[in-house]
Write a sequence for this structure.
């Protein structure tokens, strides 16, 4: 009886082995003919026998499965994800067994696949097809997990797609990896043009300097992306109405970088999005303590004060921004707008006057005040036009002011400018 049982098992094992080889052979043949439908059918049949395969056969199975599902780039997103998983299983089997039968072929395929994913991701991004772009950036990362920038790109583009679940998952993975996004860039100045250029490697940069085409070589650290990741996670939670999680995301990031200016600004933006304007102002002022001459921060406080109808505070911030950077056109333009916003109040007051002698005197004073308001706005708008001669909004406003001031010559000149700009559009 014992001999019969042993004999029966031997026959069973032999049958399984034959079936495995047959299906894998069919899959291999179909792949070589680019008949991926038949290849996948054969792989599905072989997969039922996976538990009976030895390590060598399993390696071949995972190799063929990956190729069949990838289908030379024609596989669906799910199939490609499964193909990447299959190649990972293959790598683990070969690493454990010490065999490298398929390693070289897989590495070659991975490079080809990675380049394909990156191109698809970039093309889709240009076409604003953010879902496809995000998927392919993630696939590129899965091919080479040392290229964490692709995982960051995938998460960021998922935000643009409003695929918040994917974005949160990928950002969480980045945080687990301890990703900062900080890298070293190799820079040198091209002598002929005087332009600073970035090189793909330190060796190539140094060779260019040695060859005499470049000088002033330097290594530059890129800015950390920790603050951007924390901000994006927080803003996603704000969008989902989960404000507690939003604040928690920022607080977690602050544990490692409490004085990071970008992180403070990210936190400010989150509070602004949540409608907590007091906390927003507090954080912007904290940021100014770190960077007191940051004109963008000062300008933002001016914008906020203007929105709150606090004329004097807004003016003081715009003045300070212009003092630090006289070429800061946004502050110049907003200062002019701030001044002209006072016009409606003057008009309302004029319209509410009666016909008495006292009211007539008051009317004349208000008219003079209105004229002075126009004159106060002119220098700011003129400076904007000096720096941005094609700024149609500034040109139109100046034209209307000159008309109100009966300044005929300047009105005609500015009207010609406006007509020219509108004709160009």
């Amino acid at each position: 009886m014992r001999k019969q049982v042993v004999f029966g098992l031997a026959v069973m094992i032999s049958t399984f082995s034959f079936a495995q080889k047959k299906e894998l052979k069919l899959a291999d043949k179909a792949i070589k003919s680019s008949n991926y439908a038949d290849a996948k059918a054969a792989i599905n049949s072989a997969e039922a026998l996976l538990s009976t395969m030895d390590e060598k056969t399993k390696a071949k199975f995972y190799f063929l499965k990956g190729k069949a599902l990838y289908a030379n780039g024609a596989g669906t997103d799910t199939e490609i994800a499964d193909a990447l998983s299959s190649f990972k299983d293959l790598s683990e089997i070969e690493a454990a067994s010490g065999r490298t039968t398929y390693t070289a072929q897989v590495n070659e395929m991975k490079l080809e696949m990675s380049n394909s994913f990156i191109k698809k991701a970039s093309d889709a991004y240009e076409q604003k097809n953010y879902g496809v772009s995000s998927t392919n950036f993630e696939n590129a990362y899965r091919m080479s997990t040392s290229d964490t920038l692709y995982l960051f790109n995938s998460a960021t583009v998922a935000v643009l797609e409003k695929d918040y679940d994917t974005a949160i998952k990928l950002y969480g993975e980045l945080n687990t990896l301890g990703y900062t996004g900080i890298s070293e860039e190799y820079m040198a100045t091209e002598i002929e043009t005087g332009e600073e250029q970035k090189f793909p490697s330190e060796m190539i940069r140094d060779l260019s300097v040695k060859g005499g085409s470049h000088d002033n070589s330097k290594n530059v650290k890129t800015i950390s992306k920790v603050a951007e990741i924390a901000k994006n996670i927080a803003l996603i939670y704000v969008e989902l109405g989960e404000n507690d999680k939003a604040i928690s995301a920022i607080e977690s990031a602050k544990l490692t970088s409490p004085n990071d200016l970008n992180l403070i600004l990210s936190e400010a933006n989150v509070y602004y999005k949540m409608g907590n304007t007091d906390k927003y102002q507090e954080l912007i002022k904290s940021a100014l303590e770190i960077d007191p001459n940051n004109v963008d921060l000062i300008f933002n406080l001016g914008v906020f004060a203007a929105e709150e109808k606090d004329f004097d505070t807004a003016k003081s911030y715009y003045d300070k921004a212009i003092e630090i950077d006289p070429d800061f056109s946004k502050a110049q333009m907003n200062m002019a707008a701030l001044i002209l916003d006072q016009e409606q109040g003057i008009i309302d007051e004029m319209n509410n006057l009666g016909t008495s002698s006292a009211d007539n005197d008051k009317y004349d004073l208000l008219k003079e005040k209105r004229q002075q308001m126009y004159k106060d706005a002119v220098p700011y708008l003129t400076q904007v036009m000096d720096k941005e001669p094609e700024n149609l909004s500034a040109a139109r406003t100046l034209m209307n002011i000159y008309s109100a001031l009966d300044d005929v010559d300047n009105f005609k000149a500015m009207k010609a400018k406006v007509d020219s700009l509108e004709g160009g559009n």
Observations:
- Residues 1-16 have pLDDT under 50 and may be disordered.
